[in-house]
Amino acid sequence: MEYKVAKATAKYLRLSPKKARPVIALIRGKQVDEALAIMKYTPKKAARLIYKVLYSAMSNAINNHDMDRDRLIVHRAYVDEGPRLKRLKPRAFGRADIMKRRLSHITVEVREMTDEEYEKFLRRQKKAEQA
Which of 2, 37, 8 has the alpha carbon at shortest distance from 109? Predict the structure, then answer.
């Protein structure tokens, strides 16, 4: 099935991909407003950076692709590894170790829900309100 997708990417972020991947897994497949709330209240550096990329993807969808904000869901969200910065750490007896500072590329794609998905989402939301 072909979807209309809006995308945002942040590159060369000073954040280890290993630390960012568990955080980005929290929002995959979620409705955008819910995903933003999750990122806002997750106490991690990665969450703050992912929040910005997600907000940018949402804004791209609304302004550039004329999508409805209430119908947006996180279609794909992933963290790729960027280049490594090599730094020297002084050690005993005049030696030095090489430290690798890892960089990340964060990509978030959002799409509009189909009518069927949106109705299912509304029913689930209504059921949650009644409970």
Answer: 8
